[in-house]
Amino acid sequence: METIKKWLWQHEEYPNFNYVHSTINPLLSKASRNTGRLEGAIYGLNDKHINSLIIDASINEILESSEIEGEVLSRDSVRSSVRKKLDENFDYESDSSTRHTDGLVSLLLDSRQNDTLLTEERLHAWHSILFPTGYSAGHKIDVAMYRSDEMSVVSNKGYRETVHYLAPPHEQLREEMNKFLEYVNNSQENPFVKSAIAHIWFVSIHPYDDGNGRIARTITNYVLSRELGLDHKYYSLSTAIRKDRKAYYDVLEKSQNLFYNRNFDFTKWIAWHSTMINLAIESSLEQIKIIIQKTKFWDKAREHPLNERQLKVLNKLLDKGVENFEGGLSTKKYVNMVSTSIPTAKRDITGLIDYGLIEQVEGSAGRNTRYLLRF
After folding, report:
1. Would you list the domain boundaries of the chain?
2. Where does ATP bind (predicted)?
3. Which residues are catalytic?
4. Does the annotation place 261 within a ligand binding site?
5. Same fold for the domain at 8-290 and the one at 304-373?
6. Is the dihedral of CA 279, 25, 30, 221 positive or negative?
């Protein structure tokens, strides 16, 4: 009796990941334009701001990639680990990093800065960084080696178990991974398409007991950095993916399952992945816009004799954004922020208005008067 073919690796065309070029091309053109815009925007920043952008993107990539899989890391620990590597002014006395977060930073930087060939040994090294204790969620797993058992992705609702995906048998892993590494190292495919295919191909092989999703996203970072020339370090793809996490798993499942993907067509996956890249770059461009906006604001502010209270309030407004103050700054909030009296707060606010650094929100008056930064 013939076995029913349900999973993408059982299809006769596997591993040729077909897609409709005419559908994908507009997204690829947009990604190329956005990459050019990002290069141009970065060129206009000073070294301090460029490094700040890299640090923020690195912190977010590590945190969000782990959170996609349900692992919540300490932001303070990740920040310390990143800044130890990337900030020459790092204060070691306030170091809150851990060996685990230090390792995650090393993994990320290796994927972004080391363009040597991707090998089995390198992948195993990445895997050992993810699971330094040899355990995952309290269970002993094989680390730095391919799995030695069958692997399926399942969920449970009550007594009902749903199989979302069944990976290739472990006996096939060596052959599967050799083909995969050959593609990653030598394919001349468009970089954005290549990163999407490498992503879904790796998670479909599912070579490890755990950590396959995180390593797949690390490989995506590696492919984009190596292929584009511009280091893929100014934006966080995992942040964009985590914001659309439900769609991430949905499009993956429907692409891997031949019941949904009868035509063996990966256009939807590549389109979704390319959209995430565009959103990640556009988010970075917005951050650069804010950096430039803040720089111009402080250039203007330095022309005036601001006291420590005024400087503290302006810094908080710029760092957190006025939206976090429910529509703007009020006298009461000013008092609470700097622990001063109402008369002093009013004088300070009047001074900031006179200097052109804040302005009254139109329509607000009396006790409900609100103020916004004036850029």
Report:
1. 8-290, 304-373
2. 210-217, 248-249
3. 206
4. no
5. no
6. positive
